[in-house]
Design brief:
The complex is a heterotrimer of chains A (384), B (164) and C (351).
Chain A (H helix, E strand, L loop, with lengths): L4 E8 L11 H16 L8 E5 L12 H4 L10 E4 L5 H14 L5 E9 L5 H6 L12 H16 L5 H13 L14 H6 L2 E4 L1 E2 L8 E10 H4 L6 E10 L13 H14 L4 H4 L2 E3 L7 H8 L8 H6 L16 H4 L3 H17 L12 E8 L4 E8 L4
Parallel strand pairs in A: 2-3, 2-4, 9-10
Antiparallel strand pairs in A: 1-7, 1-8, 4-7, 5-6, 8-11, 10-11
Chain B lengths: L22 H11 L4 E4 L6 E2 L15 E4 L3 E10 L12 E8 L6 E5 L12 E6 L12 E6 L16
Antiparallel strand pairs in B: 1-2, 1-3, 4-5, 4-7, 5-6, 7-8
Chain C lengths: L3 E8 L11 H16 L8 E5 L2 H4 L9 H4 L7 E4 L3 H14 L4 E9 L5 H6 L14 H15 L4 H14 L14 H4 L4 E3 L2 E2 L8 E10 H7 L4 E10 L13 H9 L9 E3 L5 H11 L6 E2 L14 H14 L5 E8 L5 E8 L2
Parallel strand pairs in C: 2-3, 2-4, 9-10, 9-11
Antiparallel strand pairs in C: 1-7, 1-8, 4-7, 5-6, 8-12, 11-12
Helix pairs in contact in C: 4-12, 7-11
The chains are: A alpha/beta (384), B mainly beta (164), C alpha/beta (351).
Chain lengths: 384, 164, 351
Amino acid sequence: MAERCAVAGIGQTKYSAKRTDVSMAGLVREAALRALEDAEMTWKDIDAVVIGKAPDLFEGVVMPEIYLADALGAVGKPMMRVHTAGSVGGSTAIVASHLVHGAAFERVLTVAYEKQSESEATWALTVRVPFSLPLVAGAGGYFAPTIRQYIKRSGAPENIGTMVAVKDRLNALRNPYAHLRMEGINADMVMASPMLWDPLRYLDACPSSDGACAMVLTNEKNAERVKNPAWILATAMRSEPISFPGRDEVSPRAGRDAASELYLEGGITNPREEIDVAEVYVPFSWYEPMWMENLGFAPKNEGWKMTAEGATAFDGDLPVNPSGGVLSSNPIGASGMIRFAEAALQVRGQAGEHQVDGAQVALGHAYGGGSQFFSMWLVGSAKP
Amino acid sequence: MSEESLTVLRSPVKLEYTFTAGETSSRFLRGFAEGKILGRRCPECEKVYVPPRGNCPICTSPMKEEMELAHTGTITKFCIVNLPFAARQIEIPYVSASILLDGADVPIFHLIQEIPYDQIRIGMRVEAVWVAPDERIPGMESITHFGPTGEPDVDIDLFEDADA
Amino acid sequence: MREVALVAFAQSPSVRQDLRRNEVEILTPVIAEAIRWGGVPRKEIGFTCSGSCDYLAGVPFSFVSALDAVGAWPPIRESHVEMDGAWALYEAWVRLQVGDVDSALVYGFGKSSVGDPRDISVLQLDPYYAAPLWPDSVSLAALQARALLQSSGYTERDFAEVVARSLRDAKRNPNAQVSGDFSPDELVKARYDVSPLREHDCPPVSDGAAAVVLAAGDLARKVCERPAWIAGIDHRIEAHSLGARDLTKSPSAALAAEKAGMGKGSLDVAELHAPFSHQELILREALGLGESVAINPSGGALAANPIMAAGLIRIGEAAQLVMDGSAKRAVGHATSGPCLQQNLICVLEAR
């Protein structure tokens, strides 16, 4: 009953610590123009605009769709702004896809961004009501205890995190947009970096980046004139409360439920075999093995084996984050959409140097909050 | 006039907020001023939440039943932090942990002190250390940290999903 | 398009400042009431979407704690917009169009008393060229009001008449914050806040929340005797640069109304989200609302303005009149941004 939806154009900006060469408007336009060019469309062809980003405290601009209407050619069009914490880049793409699936509009521009250099990201993340105890020194401080639980529960060897940290930065060397491009990155470098929140070292953690990512989504009729569109096979979102008795924070049920619905809708019965490449939201190295389990690629307590045996490496049987992932570029509000867009790039054969050969089905994944918000999609080169 | 073009504009902003803790939080915070850690029990799920919430996040039943919790508990997870602590001077590295107080079903966050950081483990028994009674305020800072009780470790079953 | 209707609407009485309850405590009974009236069991709701604003609340991720009021277990399909709940309703309507879920819970909430909404409004503006000058929402609205006075036949007394009618009607609305009998002649004698606007021409500062349940097709018919069917819903945005717009007109409201098919039949009621009195006049013209349409029987945003819920409340109030049989066809409008920059129109009808 739902209309089919495809990714017709993709655009990204160069990710870096501080984009002082563009304003916020310039940043989003850079990505949007590239997506339009890729789709062989102009602003006039777009029916609706959906933007997404993380908390406005990261830039100090409240409800920026109001300011960005001019920059994104949205005058006279519907425009919305999604905010679902860290998963927002993914949710934004999904909301945009609903406009097409639901036959409300035919050609939708979706953009996710963060220009966090304009405010103070650490401050923005720790602003709180005065009557709560400031205990968590950064996002890593929140997730590190859960990682320790995973290590204890799974018996994973201590070097798994380092392996992921190296792998993703090596992949980033194949991605001209990536923020961190660390030639010669190896395990010794990671182990030599300062320990921040045991077991996470500096190089186990994501950078803070400015950047934007955009996609043009179209219905089937409009996808016909697009060379190799990426067809959306399925989308899923789930949320759960941040704390309740017996909550499994290592492999949250919201993530597992979202993945189950995704595979059901996408006709996947064996994700490990049937998915060719995965762009997964890994902001801290140890989250790769944890998400491999949560996404059903590996049985409980065995996700680390995929990393250890090289399955998730660029030349492995299920490459994870060939783009370099969040560990290499992290404009917070955009990171989810970058995962979704990179998955689409793969099945379109447009990933250039980080193209995984023969990728036909790809997963894009994002999460946010206290591992409580999950958004994910499956894209494929064949029309569903 | 300088040849350089203007690329960065500093625009300071000051906004003042007066927050409302809310009924449930207010009672919880006032408890600290009296040296108490207060929780609430869900009448349907029968689980005890600390910090207490107005209604159960699982079944949304209002949680009215309030009780005092023990000041002892078990570490369920922790990490060793090497970044300076925002609120006060603490030696780095320090340990922040989730502590399941005896009688509670949800852990609270706090600092662990009085033990070398590399000796801390999941399952360790700890006890709240309070500031002097006349220095207590309506806030979690009335407890400076949790320290080891010396009891044997507990084998803590961490992962059971709440039943729908 | 799939048939979707509002089957329940609940709101909290708006107050100047709720010192006792935080946002979640205000929201919880509102959601509980909407679920009760909606007739769809909480665990069967297919999709949940909310609207709120971090800067209004003074903390990032402020929407997260509201999940306690929803009962997100087992995990739910849930999303959020950093916009008035009216846009969360739009997202939920779109979600139901996809066809795999049949019901949605939508809510909007905010405590405007926590910060200063006038100061916060400045941060919505272009951060490089406009915001540093610090033109707040009242000043910009006054700019628009002045332009309206100079370009049209409207007078300050016309503004006062909007206020007088709104606050008189608000006497019948138990959820209104401000109400009473005021004569326009007395109102125009009050001193200016920012000329030509007086304090009564501006919205009150309000703490409040609202929630709505949507249901599709047969489910709506099953749970509700007289669903308020969404005959059309659309929203449009205009240019941000104030100099690029004719502030005395609202082309985006007119366009949204056209796309939503508002003109396809006569209207009994229009609930317009006009936080400033003169904006009602602009919207009436843009929407072509004649004398036969009752405007803001709830009192509108001049009687209560819980930011992030106020637009959703307009749609809810209009829907309520359809659900209780007093209206056959109604429109709810919501606005966002300075001087009516963005507008949403929801056309509701009895079938």
